[in-house]
Write a structure and sequence with these properties.
The chain is mainly α. It has two domains: 7-63, no CATH class; 79-222. The protein is 71% helix and 0% strand. The chain has helices at 7-18, 23-46, 51-62, 65-105, 121-145, 157-185, 196-222. α4 (65-105) runs parallel beside α6.
């Protein structure tokens, strides 16, 4: 207990320190918990309890933080998962299609020719396009399953964590494949360093990969140590 604070303040402080995830939603959840506790304490005061006892009874009725927090944490995981899935769904396919178009819509640099390239070059290039578009589809699926209105999974935390792990595998894999293709292209990319649209798109690609890894890391943080089962029948904020 913190000196000079009431039972409700202590409870809400502990809850706030326990939860991890998107700041705005986390603050809303803590404020909602405080409002509920204060309403319960007011009801106990109306029944004749003194203020301190009313707060203690309200806290006891609400339940221990260890039992309440998993429900809140699952909603935070769902929110983080939705953000990451949306980024994956929007960013990766757009960047992939942009690279396909950039060689066609700008005449300054002729489309590269791949004669004499390693035998693995074109299969890897096609696989990379397929791989990235598949990532976009996975993002769309995760976004649907973690939907705010309709939840396709009972617990969001396992799916959000899987999304974070998957991105930490996929994004480095895409980077390695891209570097391999750049090395294999050889003279086909001569002049690329003076090709402004390509350089801009390359910068966007690197930034998007960094953003996806940041989102993946957030997914892993928000689901860290949340293996405890969700209390039966409990659903927070809708």
């Amino acid at each position: 207990m913190m000196a000079g604070s009431g039972a409700i303040d202590d409870y809400v402080t502990t809850l706030a320190r326990t939860l991890r995830g998107p700041g705005r939603l986390r603050r809303d959840m803590v404020a909602e918990a405080r409002d509920g506790l204060e309403d319960a304490a007011a009801a106990y005061r109306d029944e004749g309890a003194d203020p301190a006892a009313a707060e203690r009874m309200a806290v006891a009725e609400f339940g221990p933080v260890a039992e309440i927090a998993p429900g809140y944490q699952d909603e935070l995981a769902a929110c983080e998962g939705r953000r990451t899935a949306a980024a994956l769904f929007l960013v990766v396919p757009v960047v992939t299609v942009s690279w396909s178009l950039v060689w066609q819509i700008y005449p300054e640099l002729p489309p590269p020719t791949y004669e004499g390239k390693p035998s693995w070059f074109m299969p890897l290039a096609r696989f990379l396009d397929f791989f990235q578009l598949t990532m976009g589809l996975l993002g769309a699926t995760a976004l649907l399953l973690l939907g705010r209105r309709w939840r396709g999974v009972r617990r969001a935390e396992p799916l959000t964590r899987a999304l974070g792990v998957l991105l930490w595998i996929q994004v480095p894999a895409i980077f390695v494949m891209g570097m391999a293709l750049s090395a294999g292209a050889g003279s086909a990319l001569d002049g690329f360093s003076r090709y402004t649209p390509g350089l801009v798109l390359a910068a966007v690609s690197y930034l998007s990969q960094g953003w996806l890894l940041y989102c993946a890391t957030r997914c892993l943080i928000v689901t860290r140590g949340t293996a405890a089962p969700l209390p039966a029948g409990r659903r927070i904020l809708g």
